[in-house]
Design brief:
InterPro entries: NTF2-like_dom_sf, SnoaL-like. With 129 residues, the chain is an alpha+beta fold. It has 3 helices and 6 strands, in the order αββαββββα. The longest helix has 19 residues.
Length: 129
């Protein structure tokens, strides 16, 4: 039960800051592992700094977010987040994201997300190489 309270508190702090686009970083472990954005690449991005960069890019697209549901089981949790997006091409939409978390040593240790990647591909211009 203590672990469930701990990860729940971490996630509440994370999402409170994440919705405001500041103050969430303190909950992330230095060796954080993130998988998402392109489910054909299942090798995680490793490191807090790398995840912060991912979120900097994502923060340009989402306007607001809220937690719809949070299920905590020991040191693991599943959160359904609901996001309002404004894409660079002007498209506006709302969507849910399934976010699977683990915690270790008082920090969020990993995250795997599942969302509609096709919509992002259609609405975000690709960098020219």
């Amino acid at each position: 039960m203590e672990n469930e309270t701990s990860i729940r508190k971490l996630l509440e702090t994370y999402y409170s800051g994440f919705a405001q686009k500041q103050g969430w970083e303190e909950t992330i472990a230095d060796d954080f592992r993130y998988t998402g954005g392109d489910m054909t690449k299942t090798t995680p991005i490793v490191g807090k700094a790398a995840y912060v960069e991912v979120i900097k890019r994502f923060s340009r697209v989402f306007q607001s977010m809220r937690v719809l549901n949070m299920i905590v089981d020991g040191d693991k949790a599943c959160v359904i987040g609901n996001y309002d997006y404004l894409f660079p091409n002007g498209a506006v939409m709302n969507g849910n994201v399934a976010e699977i978390w683990t915690a270790k040593n008082g920090k969020l240790d990993s995250l795997t997300i599942y969302f509609d990647t096709l919509t992002f591909d259609k609405n975000i211009p690709k960098p020219v190489a």
